[in-house]
C-alpha cells in the first residue's frame, strides 16, 4: 500500500506499511465534510510547484521517549533529510492535555516552516496552532488529530472505522464470540483512542456481537507502570474477563508483560495495537495470539512530505489535491484535510519475524 497507497507490505522494509488492527496512543478522526481550516484559507495550490529546499520541519509528538513515537518521528527525520530540510524534535515527557502548548509557542518564535503535531487534546492546542498558522507556519496533525479548524491536514494511520472494526473482530475471535472484554486505553482525552473506542462500542451493539460485553474502559495514560497496574486491576476486578483490548503500544506491552508472568496466562487474551519488536516475546511465549498495526515510521515520513507540499504551495489542504510522498508514492487529500496512510495489518506467530520495527 505504498504507491497510491495501495501496496502491500513487504517483510523487513522500513518503508512498508503494516496493516493491522492495532492502534497506538494517537488519534484517528474521520470527517464527513471538507469544512476544515485548510478549506477555509482560500489558498490556491499549484501541483507543479517545485518542492522547496531548506524547510524547517519540526515534530511535536504527544510525548518523548515513547517507543511508538520514536519510530514515528524517525520516519519524519528520514523524510526531512530527503527533502534537504532542517529536522527538529521537541515535546513533553507527559501526555497531558496542555503540555504541548509551550512548545508550539517556542516553535513560532523560531520561525519554523512546518509543525507536525500529534495532539494530546484536539482543542487545547488550537489557540497556539492558529497563532502559528497566522505566522505562515503549516500545521500537519499526525496520528492524533487536532481540531480541523486549527491545522491544514491530518495524517491518519487508517480510517477510524477500519481500526475500530478490526479491534472488535480480533477481540471476538479471541473470546470465541462471547464473554467479557475490557479496553485499556491511553489518556481520557486522546482523540484517536476515543474515536476508535466509539466505533468499537457501535460494533459491539450489533446483533452479531451481542454475546460480547464491554465491562470497562481503563486508562493507563500511555505510562508503562500505570498501564501495568490498570491491567492488573482489570483482571482482579473482573474474574470472568476473556480479553483486554489495548489500542496503544504502551498499554498492550504493559498488559502483556503482566499476563505473561501471572496465572492469567493462557486464560485471558491480550490484543490491540502494538509494535512487532516490542510484542515479539509475548507472541513467542503464547501470551499474545494476534495484534495489529501499520508502520509508524511511514506516518512521520508522510507527515513531513505533506508539510513540504503545503509549504511549497503544491497543496493547500483541500479535498482532491494530490502530492507525491517520496517512496510512499502519490496521495490524495480527502475530506476535511484527511490523508489516510493505509489499512492496518495483523501480526501473529506466523508472520511477526518478517517485521523489524
UniProtKB/TrEMBL annotation:
Major localisation: other
One biological process term in Gene Ontology: rhamnose transmembrane transport
Cellular localisation: Cell envelope
Domain Periplasmic binding protein span(s) in chain numbering: 57-314
GO cellular component, one term: outer membrane-bounded periplasmic space
InterPro entries from the UniProt entry: Bact_Solute-Bind_Prot2, Peripla_BP_I, RhaS, SBP_2_dom
Signal peptide: 1-24
Presence of the UniProt keyword Metal-binding in the record: no
Lineage top rank: taxon: Bacteria
PROSITE patterns tied to this protein: PROKAR_LIPOPROTEIN (PS51257)
Entry-linked SUPFAM superfamilies: Periplasmic binding protein-like I
Alphabetized GO MF terms: carbohydrate binding
Keywords, alphabetical: Signal
NCBIfam families referenced in this protein's UniProt entry, alphabetically: RhaS (TIGR02637)
Protein name as catalogued: Rhamnose ABC transporter substrate-binding protein
Amino acid at each position: 500500500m505504498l504507491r497510491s497507497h495501495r501496496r502491500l507490505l513487504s517483510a523487513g522494509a522500513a518503508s512498508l506499511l503494516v496493516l493491522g488492527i492495532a492502534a497506538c496512543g494517537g488519534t484517528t478522526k474521520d470527517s464527513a465534510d471538507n469544512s476544515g481550516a485548510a478549506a477555509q484559507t482560500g489558498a490556491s495550490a499549484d501541483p507543479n510547484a517545485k518542492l522547496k529546499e531548506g524547510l524547517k520541519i519540526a515534530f511535536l509528538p504527544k510525548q518523548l521517549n515513547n517507543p511508538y513515537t520514536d519510530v514515528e518521528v524517525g520516519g519524519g527525520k528520514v523524510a526531512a533529510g530527503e527533502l534537504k530540510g532542517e529536522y527538529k524534535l521537541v515535546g513533553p515527557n507527559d501526555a497531558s492535555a496542555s503540555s504541548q502548548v509551550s512548545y508550539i509557542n517556542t516553535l513560532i518564535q523560531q520561525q519554523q516552516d512546518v509543525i507536525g503535531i500529534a495532539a494530546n487534546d484536539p482543542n487545547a492546542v488550537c489557540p497556539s496552532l492558529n497563532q502559528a498558522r497566522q505566522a505562515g507556519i503549516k500545521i500537519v496533525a499526525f496520528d492524533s488529530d487536532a481540531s480541523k479548524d486549527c491545522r491544514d491536514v491530518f495524517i491518519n494511520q487508517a480510517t477510524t472505522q477500519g481500526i475500530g472494526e478490526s479491534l472488535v473482530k480480533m477481540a471476538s475471535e479471541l473470546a470465541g464470540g462471547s464473554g467479557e472484554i475490557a479496553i485499556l486505553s491511553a489518556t481520557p482525552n486522546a482523540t484517536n483512542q476515543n474515536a476508535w473506542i466509539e466505533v468499537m462500542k457501535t460494533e459491539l451493539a450489533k446483533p452479531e456481537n451481542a454475546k460480547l460485553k464491554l465491562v470497562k474502559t481503563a486508562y493507563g495514560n500511555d505510562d508503562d507502570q500505570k498501564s501495568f497496574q490498570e491491567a492488573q486491576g482489570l483482571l482482579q476486578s473482573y474474574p470472568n474477563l476473556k480479553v483486554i483490548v489495548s489500542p496503544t503500544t504502551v498499554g498492550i506491552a504493559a498488559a502483556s508483560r503482566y499476563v505473561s508472568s501471572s496465572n492469567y496466562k493462557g486464560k485471558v487474551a491480550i490484543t490491540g495495537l502494538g509494535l512487532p519488536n516490542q510484542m515479539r516475546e509475548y507472541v513467542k511465549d503464547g501470551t499474545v495470539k494476534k495484534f495489529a498495526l501499520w508502520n509508524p515510521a511511514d506516518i512521520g515520513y508522510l507527515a513531513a512530505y505533506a508539510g513540504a507540499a503545503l509549504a511549497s504551495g503544491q497543496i493547500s489542504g483541500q479535498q482532491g489535491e494530490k502530492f507525491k510522498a517520496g517512496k510512499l508514492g502519490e496521495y490524495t487529500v480527502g475530506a476535511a484535510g484527511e490523508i489516510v496512510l493505509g489499512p492496518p495489518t495483523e501480526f501473529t506467530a506466523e508472520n511477526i519475524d518478517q517485521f523489524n520495527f
